[in-house]
């Protein structure tokens, strides 16, 4: 029997908007943003035990760190490379660094498959909980704007980080699988957005969760699709 899955809390962080320097300069910027945002959503959800499965999604990953590492290697040779930069160049570094910071012993996943990484990561966490593989999950979606990321994307990349706490206990927003969309009535078409851009997707979901303060105990519904997401009150 499939479990119902709810988003209990969400949080966001942007170094550019908040103008707060990171305390640990040994970590890459994506790892720093993940740690800051998970800290915030843990406080918002009043999570005492942070040892929960972690799902990190990013379209481009730590491209700035990888580019810096490879640039020195190609231009000056392997002996000139700073070995301390290598951990930051690994794709799953943000998930591992966040796990170490919060002493997470549960599985940690990194999804990086292009512009749909945001919706794919949230959907993967949903499926794990819905099928009773895990009881709750922390989903962290992050992007870094860098020179190499701009070249790949063809434009500037929206930078920031969002975290969502998912579990089976009833919360503000319930996640529904794709097939359920066709059964919904009076879907708010004005709220439909393309889910291709990670930060645009995260911003919409974060606002959807944060703005919902019902007095009658009702919840909202988040329906995941490949092309868009549908939002409605249920």
From TrEMBL:
Gene Ontology terms, MF aspect: acyltransferase activity
Domain Beta-ketoacyl synthase-like N-terminal positions: 19-140
Family matches, as Gene3D superfamilies: 3.40.47.10
Coiled coil, from the record: none
Protein name: Beta-ketoacyl synthase-like N-terminal domain-containing protein
